[in-house]
Amino acid sequence: MRKTIIQLLLTCLCLIPVYAWSQHIEIRGKIFDNETLEAIPFCTISVKGAQIGTCSNSQGEFIFHCPDSLKSYDLIFRSIGYKTKPIQLKLLADKEIMTIYLEPELYEIPEINVSLNQLSATDIIRHVIRNMRKNYPRNSYYMEGFLRDRCFNLIDNTNTRLTEAAVEIVKKEFGNTNNADKVKVTEIRNSFNYSKLGSWRKEKRTQAFWGYSTDNSLYKTLQYMDFTNSRILTNLLGNDFFSKTISGYSMFDGKPVVIVDIKEEIVGSMTRNAKAVYAYDLCRLFIDVETYTMLKTEFYWIDKHPKEMFSKNFKLYLKQDSIVSYAIKQYENIDGQYYLKYADYLGRVHDQPDTGEFKKILYFNETELLINKVITNKKEFDPIKHKDLLKRNVPLWEMKYVYNPSFWENYNILIDKPLNPRVQKDLEKDIPLHDQFNNAGIKNSKDRK
Question: How far apart are CA 31 and CA 77, in angstroms?
Answer without folding.
Answer: 9
